[in-house]
Amino acid sequence: MRATTSTLGFAAMTAVTVMWLTVAAADDAPSLVPAPTAPAALAQPGRTVVTSELALDYQRDTVELPDGSSVTTSTFDFHVGLDRVLPARLTLGGRIGFAGAVSGLDRERRFDLGVRFGGLVPLGGSTIWWPTLGLTYGTTSVDDGNASVTVRTVSLVVSAPFLWQPAHHLLVGVGPTYSRDLQAKTGSDADQTGPKTSGFGIHGLIGFWF
Prior knowledge:
By secondary structure, this protein is mostly beta strands. The protein has a single domain (2-209), classed as Beta Barrel (Porin). 10% of the residues lie in helices and 62% in strands. It contains two helices and 14 strands. It has helices spanning 10-25, 38-42; strands at 2-7, 48-51, 56-64, 70-85, 90-103, 106-119, 121-123, 127-129, 132-143, 148-159, 162-167, 170-186, 192-193, 198-209. It has an eight-stranded antiparallel beta barrel. The longest helix is centred in the N-terminal third of the chain and has 16 residues, at 10-25. It starts with a strand and ends with a strand.
């Protein structure tokens, strides 16, 4: 059995880099910021933080079976966050995106929109801890070619990444995340109880602030 894989995951890195260069070029400050000033600069009220959260990806996998047939699966995921820094180093913002997978006649698509509240906690001269707590509304549609089911969920989402600023306006981070469906409804009138999902992971993000 042979498998071939193509991916456009590097598109996320390219898009964020172009946005960062555009913002940095328009700023009178030097392109590099000494590490001790990075947390203080980011945590000032009125700053806007944009993150891709490493969720801009498209992948296509083709598996060739011993009988000569093949199965192709395509997956995609795009999410972006936007947060505003408030007084007392608090943050308020949201996250929006969509994801899905296609394999033969089977299709799964998800759209979600959420709000979150958090805070920036400087740790030393070059690191910030950014815990957030939020609620997300999502719809997931599954279609096998014969029937389709849509599940509507309201989820609790907790994230606590550690942020570093390798260059002016540019952010990278990694940290734990936890999500749990508080409500799941299905049916044409969303009057039936659907399956609930919970999960824990370690996620990264790439973004910029201005």
